[in-house]
Amino acid sequence: MKKVSLSMILLAVFAITLTSCRDTKKKEDAGDKIENSLDEAGDKAEDAWDDTKDAAEDTWEDTKDAAEDTWDETKKAADTIKEKAKKTGEKIEEKIDDNQ
Q1: pLDDT tens digits for 16-62?
Q2: CA 15 → CA 28, 49, 51, 94, distances in Å?
Q3: C-alpha to C-alpha distance for 90 and 97, rounded to whole angstroms
Q4: 28-30-34-39 Cα dihedral, nearest 10 degrees
């Protein structure tokens, strides 16, 4: 009876050990899959952040360039208006001098 009981206990311990190892392996695989998924998600988020940052920097540079171009064109227009106003003033003075 002792041999049978010991054999049953030994068989039960062996079965628990096999089952335990199998469950651990599944848990490890699931943990690895979760970790890999999180790593991939983190990489994608980082790539998206880098793309957004690059786009923002490009937009800023384009805006600065456009502002500088607008300023240059405004200065040219102001100089042109100033020159035309000066010529118009001179013509008016000539007409006044001619009429006197």
Answers
A1: 666 545 555 666 777 888 888 888 999 999 999 999 999 999 999 99
A2: 20, 51, 54, 118
A3: 10
A4: 50
Query: Any idea of the CA torsion for 91, 93, 98, 100, to the nearest 10 degrees?
Result: 160
Of how many residues is the chain composed? 100
What is this structure's pTM? Answer: 0.50
Domain boundaries, the chain: 70-99
Residue type, 38: L
pLDDT digits (tens, 9 = 90+) for 65-97: 999 999 999 999 999 999 999 999 998 988 887
Three-state secondary structure along the chain?
CHHHHHHHHHHHHHHHHHHHHHHHHHHHHHHHHHHHHHHHHHHHHHHHHHHHHHHHHHHHHHHHHHHHHHHHHHHHHHHHHHHHHHHHHHHHHHHHHHHC
